[in-house]
Specification:
Length: about 600
């Protein structure tokens, strides 16, 4: 070894695995801190970064051929200027790396060297990516510790998901379950105290702000929830909490992927539904069971690998239970707090919906589903083909579009000309993760759905999404189903109905807004308060004539439910629009401060 190499060896930082192990041992009770660890003592990024294509090429060169030892790869990455900015590209390159059978053992050995002795983010990333493909049970302790580095969490969890799903979930929660209210559960999941896990699960806050679908799924995996429920078959608080976690996993707002990848989903459905009679009849429990029934009837729960007839049997069981007087009478009792009144009204409207007409194979079924308002569940136009829900099966990145869009606008009607219709948009917007489209056309006595458009891969997969087949429907049956869905408002509540009627009135009389240089925007029930109607509109001088002077400013008018019939409330709102400039009672809600001041309006505080 040369003198320079000896000096370099003496100044090498400790392996990242050793750093993480040291921090973990120094943590209280050996439990990782909130948000995991950050990588320290890493080289500063180069001043002149490589372009993306140059970096891809450099990474391919560094990996071809795979070296026999980790030190060689460290030197290659250092020479090529690889730093933490290139870790995602390194992961992708290793995932695509050809690994013939005769090279797999050497590649596994290199992955282990890099994860155990790697001193830089790029080197450890390459090691973890190799173990995603080649890891074995002996790698679990190293993956678990390295996963506590935020830069490595997702990669380590991908590897652990293959080897030990429970450990993967614990590591994921340790880093990503960032709400303070979840930390007591995370601590006992890390230590593995089964009795304490049961206690903390029951105490867990179940509101949506605490439990996303992914958090719910990871909790169920980390707790081995199906086993825990079998160990405590008469524990009704645990049974109720299990039902809530299952509901959250199937939540369509963020897509159904978590429910569909949860391996014990069928077991939990079976356990919760068959033991549902043990639950005390409360509005909360009624809402949980009704939400599960809606999911099993027309949501992502339909897509699980059910034994023949079992899903229908469990649905019928729930239907009989919730029809019993002790359950059916709950929504008619004094509900008390505002959120319980919302829930009671929802149960009255929706309580029998999932137990109605079954889907007929070969026939389109359109089902408007308004989820539990306390959970802020979306209102969806669920479309089922051959009894299977289209959006979670073909898209799985967000809920189906609302009836305000698909049905009130008549977009599902088959006209004389083909029309492309957006059935769903990703929860993060179409520009980020795409949307689901289909073209609808009439072909003689048939209606055809064809030319589907969606993202090129399914969520969580690198594999190309397969082409979707065309569907043909008898035109008479199709038209009847669309007409039924458009006129069926049994799912709606007063504020939502008021919004629909106001919107219809403005479509018929656009001059009610254009006279004030305003243009109709989004109109629906309030998100924060579903018992209010929200009317939004844009304003700019000249907008009414179609020649706006500058970018429109956005306004929001909130119409509280006054207890009268929605028809009367909508008529009153339309009369007010005819007589009074809505800018005098609406509030600015969009645009920018400079534009608002230019037009003489106050910008909202805190915006």
């Amino acid at each position: 070894m040369s003198a320079q190499e000896e000096r370099d060896a003496l100044t090498l930082p400790p392996a990242l695995y050793d750093q993480a192990l040291h921090v973990l041992r120094d943590s209280p009770d050996g439990v990782p801190p909130l948000r995991g660890f950050s990588i320290s003592q890493q080289p500063e990024p180069s001043e002149i970064p490589l372009s993306r294509e140059a970096a891809r090429s450099a990474i391919r060169d560094a990996l071809n051929p795979l070296p026999d030892d980790s030190a060689t790869l460290h030197r290659r990455f250092a020479r090529l200027g690889m730093d933490r900015r290139h870790m995602r590209l390194i992961r992708s390159a290793v995932a695509d790396l050809p690994l013939p059978d005769d090279q797999r053992e050497a590649a596994r050995s290199l992955g282990r060297q890099l994860t155990r002795t790697g001193t830089t983010g790029p080197a450890v990333t390459a090691g973890l990516a190799l173990l995603v493909r080649l890891g074995e049970p002996e790698d679990i302790p190293y993956l678990s510790v390295l996963g506590l580095f935020r830069d490595f969490t997702l990669l380590a969890v991908d590897a652990l998901d293959i080897l030990d799903r429970r450990r993967a979930a614990v590591v994921w929660l340790a880093v990503y379950a960032r709400r303070a209210e979840l930390r007591p559960l995370v601590r006992v999941l890390w230590t593995g105290d089964r009795q304490a896990i049961c206690t903390e699960l029951v105490a867990l806050p179940a509101e949506p702000r605490f439990l996303s679908s992914t958090v719910a799924r990871r909790i169920a995996e980390a707790a081995r929830l199906a086993d825990l429920l079998d160990q405590h078959p008469s524990d009704t608080p645990l049974l109720a909490r299990t039902g809530r976690l299952l509901v959250r996993m199937g939540c369509s707002r963020y897509g159904p992927t978590d429910l569909l990848v949860y391996r014990e989903a069928l077991t939990l459905y079976e356990s919760v539904v068959t033991r549902a009679r043990l639950l005390p009849p409360t509005l909360d429990n009624h809402a949980t069971l009704l939400s599960l029934a809606l999911d099993m009837s027309s949501g992502s729960g339909v897509l699980l690998d059910w034994p023949p007839g079992r899903r229908v049997s469990l649905l019928e069981s729930l239907g009989r239970l919730l029809a019993e007087p002790r359950w059916a009478s709950l929504p008619d009792t004094d509900a008390g707090e505002a959120h319980q009144r919302l829930r009671a009204g929802w149960i009255r409207r929706t309580g029998r919906q999932p137990f109605g007409r079954p889907a007929t194979p070969g026939v389109l079924r359109v089902e408007v589903v308004a989820g539990d308002p306390v959970d802020r569940a979306p209102v969806e136009t669920r479309i089922l083909l051959d009894g299977r829900p289209v959006v979670p099966e073909f898209f799985a990145r967000g809920p189906a579009n609302s009836p305000d869009f698909l049905l009130d606008e008549g977009l599902l009607r088959a006209g004389s000309e083909p029309s492309e219709v957006q059935l769903a948009e990703a929860y993060c917007t179409e520009g980020c993760c795409g949307a689901l489209y289909v073209t609808i056309r009439r072909d003689g006595d048939q209606v055809v759905w064809e030319n589907w458009r969606r993202p090129s891969t399914m969520p969580g997969s690198r594999e190309p999404a397969p082409e979707l087949a065309a569907y043909r429907f008898d035109a008479v049956v199709y038209d009847a189903e669309i007409a039924r869905a458009e006129t069926d408002h049994s799912w709606s509540w007063p504020a939502r109905t008021t919004a629909r009627l106001i919107k219809a009135g403005l479509v018929e009389q656009p001059d009610l807004l254009s006279r004030w240089d305003a243009k109709r925007g989004w109109i629906s029930s309030g998100f924060e308060d579903p018992d209010t109607t929200v009317v939004t509109f844009g304003y700019a001088p000249g907008l009414g004539s179609g020649k706006p002077d500058g970018i429109p400013l956005q306004f929001r008018w909130v119409v509280p439910d006054d207890g009268t019939a929605p028809e009367a409330q909508a008529a009153a709102a339309l009369r007010r629009l005819a007589k009074e400039d809505p800018k005098t009672y609406g509030q600015v809600c969009g645009g920018n401060r400079e534009r608002a001041e230019e037009l003489g309006f106050s910008w909202p505080e805190g915006a």
